[in-house]
What we know:
70% helix, mainly alpha, 0% strand
Amino acid sequence: MNLADLADILITLINFAEKGLCKIRTRYNRTETQKRILSTCVRLFIEQGYSNTSPKQIFKEADVSAGTFYHLYKSKGGVLNELIDFMFDNQFDIADQVIGNSAKPVMRYAVETAIQLALAEINENIRDIYVQVYTQPDTVAMIQEKMTKELYKLFGPYMPDCGQSDFYELEIGTSAIMRGFMAHPCDAGAKDREVPLHEPEYIQGAGKRAAGSL
């Protein structure tokens, strides 16, 4: 699977979700212009990296004016927020597709985390996206809020003395660990191990291996 294929899959998933053809949650129906901007950014971010994608290139390839773009998204970071909001709304759904929705909570959490780590190791451009996500205050706050709710839903029944604030503090630490891991280049420490980072099966296999080790 090359970068163009990966971008096409994500764009198709977003479009299918808008049409109700797959069980993916979205907050609202995007306008055609918004979807065109988002699809363009997904492709550019994956093909050349978030940091190397300029607003001017987005305007040109999405065929929108600067005024329209900034009215809808305010900044390039606004597009990233939209994409990450979509991804993190559905990561546990994707994990359930790997192991089944009847799996134990700790396994679901392990697989969801493993999927993130595996995606960040596929190539430098995807890693760059994740580093930006876990660095920018708005996006990391969004992640912490969403993950706190998921953790409370998963583990709250087993930990009745813990409230959402306790899981929020846990997520603050966890997001910092994720940021630290993703800050390293994809090939760091990989010289002595043969890992097929380019294979799509690695993503699913990583989740299963992490869950099986618990």
